[in-house]
Amino acid sequence: MTTTAIALVLASVVLHAAWNAVAKGRPTFAFFYYSNIVGAILLLPVVYLHADVVWKLPQTVWWFLTFAGMAQAVGGLALMRAYAAADLSVAYPPLRW
User: Fold this and answer.
1) Which H helix or E strand runs over 47?
2) Which of 75, 54, 76 is nearest to 65 (CA)?
3) Count of Cβ atoms closer than 10 Å to residue 81 Cβ
4) What is the pLDDT of residues 43-88, one digit of tens each?
5) Which of 13, 34, 14, 15 is nearest to 80 (CA)?
6) pLDDT at 3 over 90
7) Between these two residues, 16 and 70, which has the higher pLDDT value?
């Protein structure tokens, strides 16, 4: 594994842990909603730069993305409710298994 790959994996791990720690402190629908909106806005330039490729994706991929997005929404809501009801170390593992 290259140094760049290791650095990206470590950065991902740190960001993931930080996100869950912050989310545990604010388990509200508004926090999850607005944080996802901010993430989508931050990724829009990437979609714009690669619009020619994005629009050529087959319909099957768009259906997969639609259902994956719905699954992510359900998982996020479950995580939000779990964080409100239990400690991070208890709520997180069953939802991410």
Assistant:
1) helix 29-49
2) 54
3) 14
4) 899 989 999 998 999 999 999 999 998 998 888 888 888 878 887 7
5) 34
6) yes
7) 70
Q: Which amino acid is at 11?
A: A
18-40 per-position pLDDT tens digit: 887 887 777 677 887 888 888 88
Q: Are 80 and 23 in contact (CB under 8 A)?
A: yes
Q: Are 20 and 88 in contact (CB under 8 A)?
A: yes
- Please work out, in degrees rounded to the nearest 5, the angle formed at the alpha carbon of residue 97 by the alpha carbons of 10 and 46: 50
Contact indicator for 53, 70 with CB cutoff of 8 Å: no
Distances in whole angstroms, Cα of residue 34 to Cα of each of 15, 23, 48, 60, 86 = 17, 12, 21, 29, 23
Which DSSP helix (H) or strand (E) runs through 88?
helix 88-96
